[in-house]
Amino acid sequence: MTMLTTTRLPLIRHGGPDDLFAWHDGRPVTVRGYLAAVRDLARRLPEGGFVLNLCADRLGFAVGLGAALLRRQVSLLPPNDTPATLRQLEDSYPGLVCLTDAGAGYPGMTCIEALPQGGLDRLSAAVSPFDGDLAFPADQVAAIAFTSGSTGRPMPQVKSWGTLVRSVHGAGTALGIAGLGAAGLVGTVPHQHMYGLESVALLAMQHGLVLHANRPLFPADIAACLGDFPGRRILVTTPVHLQALLADGTALPPLDLILCATAPLAPQLAIDAEARLGAPLHEIYGCSETGQVAVRRTSATAEWLCIDGIRLRQDEQGSWASGDFLDGETLLADVIELKSDTRFILHGRSADQVNIAGKRSSLAFLNHHLNSVEGVRDGVFFMPNEGGSGTTRLAALVVAPGLTAETLLARLRERIDPVFLPRPLRFVDALPRNPTGKLPREALLRMLATPQRD
Question: Where is the AMP-binding enzyme C-terminal domain (predicted)?
Answer without folding.
Answer: 392-438
